[in-house]
Predict the 3D structure of the following.
Amino acid sequence: MDQLPDIIKTAKEEVKEAEEAIKYHEDLTSGKDGNTVGNKEKGKKLREEFNLAIGRLNRAENIFKNSEEIISFWAGKLEFGFDELLDDSLRVENGGASSWALRKKSNKSDTGEEE
C-alpha cells in the first residue's frame, strides 16, 4: 500500500512519455516519405507501449482504490465491532444462506430473473 503512490506516479510518467513518443513519431512521419512500412510498424509499436502504460496505470489506481476501501472496511469493524459478521456466521451455522447467497438472490430479484 505504501508503494502504490510511487507506482502510480511512475505509471503516469510512462503514459506521458508514450504520448510524447507517439506525437513525435507522428510529427516526423507526417510528410510524403513518412508512410513507409517501417514507420507504420514503429507507430504500431509506440501505440502498443502506450496501451500497456495505460493498463499499468489503471491497474495501480484500481488496486489503490480497492485497498483504501478494504482498509476502511476493516478499520470500521475494529472500531465498531464484528457483530454483523458474527450474525452472518451464526445464520450459516444454523443452516441459513450466506451473505453471498443472499446478495445473489437479491440481485436476481432486482433484475427480475427467476432462480
In short: The helical segments are 4-28, 37-80, 83-93, 99-111. The mean pLDDT is 86. The CA atoms of residues 17 and 90 lie 54 Å apart.
